[in-house]
Amino acid sequence: MGANYDSSGQRNNGSGTALLLETARGLKDIPTNHNIYFVAYANGAEPAGKSISSGACVHASTLSGSIGATNILGMINLEPQKLDAGGERKQPGPESSREAVLFTTTPHGKKFAGQCAAPFAKSWEQAPATFHREPSALTGNDRHYAVLGIPTVSCRSKYPVTDARTEEYVQALTDMIHQVADNDAPEPAKNAGQGEKAS
């Protein structure tokens, strides 16, 4: 699970890293059948011409080389939440916060996205909308994993970072990762290396 540091720019408000840390804190005492890596990336995914130096690119290559793409259950990319216009706090409509989370995945990650959607919906009361994109159409950190054949899912949140229901979103992410990493792993990944943990 990864997110950019977001050290500059109005839209880069650090919310992805905040969600990453809060989710990690929620999972720190929960045992799972798989290792879970929480990674904050330096050097964002853009511009594309400099992607070789991005933290996500370096991590994807290192992880794939040391573990092997087939032993990686999947990568979850946290996209930053959008700030309110003018920095003003706005309250969403009654149902808007539960309709404003979507998954973007590649055709190769379709099964992984389905595994993520079920536990997410259990917490969120509604499965996130899922859009499929070819790896070449991805523009964020997830593309570096997708091109290596690692199933990827980007969690994109459209409600403001100031929204009071952010805590519910973190809980949904925590439940999702816990259930996928514990009980919903594909059989080949569970049996990988017999006594070894897959990631």
Features:
199 residues; alpha/beta; 4-stranded mixed beta sheet; two-stranded parallel sheet; 6 strands; 34% helix; globular; disordered C terminus
Helix/strand layout:
Layout (H helix, E strand, L loop, with lengths): L1 E3 L10 H13 L11 E3 L13 H13 L7 E4 L22 E5 L4 H15 L4 E4 L9 H5 L5 E6 L8 H17 L4 H4 L9
Parallel strand pairs: 1-2, 3-6, 4-5
Antiparallel strand pairs: 4-6
| Largest beta-sheet characterization | 4 strands, mixed
What is the chain-wise order of helices and strands?
Answer: EHEHEEHEHEHH
Q: Give the N-terminus to C-terminus distance in angstroms.
A: 11 Å
What's the number of extended β-strand segments? 6
Low-confidence stretches: 83-97, 184-199
Count of individual helical segments: 6
Q: Tell me which oligomeric state these chains represent.
A: single chain
Q: What structural category do the secondary elements indicate?
A: alpha/beta
| Proportion of helical residues | 25-40%
Q: Report the mean per-residue pLDDT as an integer.
A: 76
Q: Give, in spatial order, the strands making up the sheet with the most strands.
A: 3-6-4-5
